[in-house]
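re the bet — no i am not wrong, look at it urself. input seq straight from the record:
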Amino acid sequence: MRRQVGRVIVAVVAAGAVATGCGGPSQVGSAVIVGDNAVSLESVQSQLATALSKPDQVSQLKQQGGSEADVARGIVTQQVLHDLLGRQAAAQGIAITEQQIDSALADNGGADQVLDSSLYDLPTLRDRVRDNLIAAQLARNVVGGLSITVDLVAATSEADADAKAATLAAGGPAADALFADQNTSAKGQAIQAVNYPDDAGTVLFGTPVGDVVVFQPSAQQASWIVFRVTDRRTDVASPPEALNNLSQQQLVTIGERQLQPVADQVGVNVNPRYGVWDPIQMRVVDADQRAGEILTPKG
């Protein structure tokens, strides 16, 4: 099975459409469908109107190269993450209180100050804070013992990357031969989450064992990366202080990355007016930003 994914700028080598069919909610009138849950176009447009009513923030976004379309995609992204985080919070028994939300806002100058620098209204802001607290707790639940092992191969073009990905997914002697040159490949690289927290928030740690990912790290460069996850452990020993060294934002990013296989399992169908769901970046992107694939070997 091949799943289209999007462009992401991430260093992975440390060493060198409209839904159809019967049943479920209709895409008509929906901005996005996550599993059997639909988010209405109306709700997204309402949040977009709120965001665009804050000219200072919108102007700052445009100065950074963003657009109103990016704001809309960001809103849909947050709706997807909100749904997925709710599912995982229920599965793991995570409950966030209103007092915790109040405390988090107070730590950042209070609700009014945060609102002044955001594109949200107060109810949406509180939802975002709740989501971040859930994501951080998801990370705390796993990151201390989390480690993966990967095989990585560099490629010089998209065609070269596709060929190597297909070979790696097929396995056998031809796949083994991809790692003959140690200058362009790395086999059996173990990466522990607490030691490489930035990597722990990337597709490396969200890809199931056995899957092969091919993508272009940067559109400004010709190189491509192919990797296969060969092992994933959650029982690796790490010093207690290592977890304490992680920032809140790192924890949030790591926690959100744990949603990647959940999104794949339940399905995320974005209304084409907003774009497509990109499991590598864990966000909605414009359709022409896709630049890679995930291959799940058969058998």
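see?? Residues 153 and 185 are 4 Å apart (CA to CA). told u. also Residues 1-22 have pLDDT under 50 and may be disordered. so pay up
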